[in-house]
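Hi R.,

Here's the chain you asked about this morning:
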Amino acid sequence: MNYFLTEEQQMIRDLARKIAEEKVAPRAAEFDEAEEFPWDLIKILAEAGLFGVWVPEEYGGLGGGVFEQCLVVEELSRACGAVAVSYAASALGGFPILLFGTDEQKRKYMPDIASGARLAAFALTEPDAGSDASNIRTTATRDGDYYILNGTKQWITSGGEAEIYTVIATVDPSRGARGMTAFVVEKGTPGFEFGKKEKKMGIRASATRELIFQDCRVPAANLLDREGKGFIVAMRTFDRTRPGVAAQAVGIAQGALDRAARYATERVQFGKRIAEFQAIEHMIADMATQVEAARALVYATARMIDAGERDFSKEASMAKVFASDVAMRVTTDAVQVFGGYGYMRDYPVEKMMRDAKITQIYEGTNQIQRSIIGSAVIKQAIRRASSTP
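And the predicted structure, written out as tokens:
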């Protein structure tokens, strides 16, 4: 479909596609097998200026928004979901600073994030606080001009590789969400260490580590917004980054569809190409329709956010849940089209199926997304009913 991209948006998409096809795709299996963080590819993306597509020009970016970020993530994901999330996670860590930071904080951190000179990461999840984000136990205790952080964060994307971390801690665990507070913590701060690197089903090249805070002294100047606003910082950040997860899902699904369709024209059984069998043809038709529907929802949501709409939590969740479910279905069908070959690591759809699964889980499981969507729809229905004479 023609989504009527501007000339600049077309250039961004085409550049990301060129890098994905020429630099990322040939090495995707290598990085997956080695579980190695793709630093050389990250540097290529940085040199191309792609880390700054969503950052305002005044902070060293290209002045785009969520939509431009989604274009890049989608193209990279067609080649490798792990490289894509290693790129996208820096926006997840950077958005809280852009949205809630002081001008001084923005000028200190955003230019390096925009240039890709330093990666950012976001730290919310803990062993006992996954879907229940308000249950975090990492504490922040005021001590003069500092806060002392103690606790452990779990499953942090780009943990250990990133240098700038947005960390959510609590100044008062008894207050639940109202005690949550956001800080910027730099790698190398005394008392801030990294735990084990996780071994994962998919996106293996992406680094996922524990963050350990033990009497970590963070300057009070690194507080984002004010005490007790950490939950709002996290949720408003997710509203802007969930479309990026959805774009990752669309890219993975599109990559699997491309390969399945090509394979169906090459594989011969019973004397003819399997693409000529109606069963395969209909599978590919359904896959293509689902991918395009997911893309349309993701693009519409990203444009809605960039247009300045104030409330888009429901739409961001819709994009994330629909696109990630599509990615799982499409990659599963792609493996089926490949048959026994699809189950082998020699063929990329096996990796794509593994990579797709995480899009249904991180930045809020799809069950949580459905609760957000359902709650919003019901509230809208109540408001309409109450306003009806």
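The chain has three domains: 7-118, 121-227, 231-383.

Let me know if you need anything else.
M.
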